[in-house]
Design a protein that fits this description.
This protein is an all-beta fold. The chain is built from two helices and 35 strands. Bound molecules: calcium ion (2 copies).
């Protein structure tokens, strides 16, 4: 059995950076997936009225004067609804003047492109037979229910299509999906004005009640925010039922966010639940919630000594940089027979900061005294490294073979201030001995690096700053002292002073010749 004589004090890495980037989309779901538009015609007015309503405070008022022909409500279904799934299609009408005729049109997508195209034979359009309000048994100045399943439909420009009810059409139009529905009131030719209100259109599980907030997204939030910054979410709720309900809004916060406040306040003793008791039919409201994303609060101090004899490998890294990440906030609304849920995703913008990375590798005696201080905005470090080469032996079964695992010492130091675009990189290698001291500070306003090195070996030193760079290569037995200091003042970054002194170096070019 081999006996391991060397030991390896390796790899202590302080890493403050790793946050996974996910991909996501901002969802936009309203209390209804139906979108509507009211016709804008010269001699006919279609607008939202607050005077009369079947549910809530508003309805659509369609008025056609003697010069006009019709007024219309355009309804768009996104996503399209398979006809076979249409189990409810009804609305409430309040004829006010004249005896207008009603016609309902349904447009279908049959080829899967989510839209109706009159030239595509797979798409389809059906129209109900025009019927006057009185013909359908409606009375003026009262709310009457009109059920789309009671109407007779024909297929547009298709004489071979047998007219029938919506249920009959389901068999004839198998596989087709409704993309839009038109509800039209044609004028009564005998009246000077034809007018009717329409409210509470129910298509499948979706409702249009012409209430002001019903088209709002249930959950709305910013697409991006700064780390530690405020995020405001707006939740829109509403009672789509015909009876008062106890409506409950339940939030599901991202664990990387903290609740700050909301208007209105959450239920007593909670920070994520709002109960609206006895909310009247059609009533809508909004909750504004302020959250704060957790600010990266990494900080720490390392003060100590690392020493050993043998094969050494030492690595360290500190970074104040944070990658962008996504936070998602979900909301659930429970209201009578209607349940809604939605989410908002916000991208937390990255932090550009500083990174300090260092390491020493070699065989022999090693000692490092160090003090490292870091927080979310700056890093400072002071390290003194003393390393002396000596061969390391490993006892392999019967034979003790002196084995030089690495015949030299190497050390590296990278100090990057990405915020101010300053990069220092020092590398010492093939060294017999290493006596290295440095102090560095990486911050927004002041960055410096002071080094003192006594090395028997090679050294590369590179510095980049806005507007310049310096590259130095040294070989031999030398002493190197350097100081570089950058200060941020008057919106420019400039070297305060910079000097590099060394004794007995052999230039790289001389060595290689
Ligand atoms: Ca189509
Ligand atoms: Ca309404």
């Amino acid at each position: 059995m081999s006996k391991l004589l060397h030991y390896n004090r390796s790899l202590y890495i302080v890493l403050i950076t790793v946050i996974i980037i996910q991909m996501g989309v901002l969802s936009s779901i309203g209390l209804t997936d139906l979108d509507y538009r009211l016709s804008k015609l010269k001699n006919a007015d279609a607008s939202v009225s607050t005077e009369q309503s079947f549910q809530g405070g508003n309805s659509a008022e369609l008025t056609i004067n003697s010069e006009g022909n019709y007024a219309r409500i355009y309804i768009y279904l996104d996503p399209p609804l398979p006809l076979v799934d249409l189990d409810q299609f009804s609305m409430w009408m309040y004829p006010q003047s004249g005896d207008g005729s009603v016609q309902v049109e349904l447009y279908f997508d049959g080829d899967g492109d989510d839209s109706y195209d009159s030239k595509n034979v797979q798409d389809a359009r059906i129209l109900s037979q025009k019927k006057s309000c009185s013909n359908m048994g409606m009375s003026n100045n009262t709310w009457n229910e009109l059920d789309g399943f009671d109407l007779q439909y024909e297929k547009y420009k298709d004489d071979e299509f047998p007219p029938g009810s919506l249920d009959d059409c389901k068999g004839q139009l198998e596989g087709k999906r409704i993309v839009k529905i038109y509800i039209t009131i044609y004028k009564d030719a005998k009246a000077s004005e034809t007018s009717a209100l329409i409210d509470y259109i129910k298509i499948g599980d979706e409702i249009i009640s012409f209430e002001p907030l019903e088209k709002e997204d249930i959950k709305d939030g910013p697409t991006s925010a700064t780390p530690g910054g405020l995020i405001t979410y707006t939740i829109t709720y509403g009672n789509n039922d015909l009876e008062p309900v106890d409506l409950v809004v339940k939030e599901e916060y991202d664990p990387r966010t903290v609740f700050i406040m909301s208007d209105p306040s959450p239920d007593p003793g909670t920070f994520d639940t709002w109960t609206f008791s006895n909310l009247p039919p059609g009533a809508h409201g909004q909750i504004k919630i302020k959250m704060r994303s957790r600010k990266p609060a990494a900080k720490g101090i390392i003060d100590g000594r690392v020493s050993g004899k043998g094969l050494m490998s030492r690595e360290g890294m500190f970074s104040t940089e944070f990658e962008s990440y996504l936070i998602t906030n979900n909301v659930y609304i429970l209201a009578g027979e209607f349940n809604f849920s939605s989410s908002a995703t916000t991208r937390i913008r990255p932090i550009i900061g500083s990174t300090l990375a260092f390491g020493e590798h070699g065989a022999g005696d090693y000692q490092a005294d160090e003090k490292l201080t870091y927080n979310s905005v700056s890093i400072s470090a002071e390290r003194h490294i003393l390393a002396e080469f000596s061969p390391v032996s490993v006892n392999l079964s019967l034979k003790s073979i002196p084995l030089s695992l690495r015949g030299d010492w190497s050390a590296n130091l990278r100090a990057l201030n990405d915020y101010r675009d300053i990069r220092w990189s020092d590398r010492y290698y093939e060294g017999k001995d290493l006596n290295l001291s440095y102090r560095t500070q990486l911050g927004k306003t002041l960055s410096y690096l002071e080094t003192a090195a006594q090395v028997q070996g090679l050294a590369d030193r590179t510095v980049y700053w806005p507007g310049g760079f310096a590259d130095t290569h040294l070989a031999g037995n030398f002493t190197l002292a350097g100081s570089a200091r950058w200060k941020w003042a008057n919106k420019t970054i400039s070297p305060d002073k910079e000097w590099l002194a060394c004794s007995c170096p052999i230039e790289d070019s001389l060595l290689s010749s």
